Amino acid sequence: MNLDKFWQSVASFGGKNSADNRKQLDKVLADAKQAQRLQVIKSVNAYVNSVVTYEVDDVVWKESDYWASPAELLGRGQGDCEDYAIAKYILLMKSGVPEENLRLIYVKAKIGGRRSSVTQAHMVLGYFHPGASQPLILDSLVDEVLPARDRTDLTPVFSFNSQGLWGPGNQKASGSSTAKLSRWRNVFRKLELEGITLG
Question: How far is it, in rounded angstroms, from Cα 40 to Cα 152?
């Protein structure tokens, strides 16, 4: 990750607090080299949730559904659930977490409490610890990193990363995520321009 190029991109998207944000992120990335995996996950989750304010795409990007890159998200300081999940995914990979352990998960989220039948589309990031039956969930709306079994308000629809796309409960990918999800493909195009290479 070319941090200088990345922070230039953040500034180009209007990053007003980029000096403070950079100092915090530099610390998170430096600490990740020595920290245990769970601590890295919690630190990245806390960082993104603390420096970004939740706002819908219509307000931030004047579009109904826009997937921002991490530089766009930090530059604007606002984003929706997909933007948070994507930023955490990228930053965790850059902190040394293997991509095969990370998946963005589209869910139906209950609104109005556990007994409510009203749901809305939502995205979270899942960390799949090797050998564990359920992932840890990193969410834009809940600061605590919790096992999926404790998030009874979420029903998975499908999950993906750059390696594939999975239906709920499926162990085998059903195809290429970048071929099937054009917004995800667009995020990858933006990353290289912003100093982030994956793989």
Answer: 25
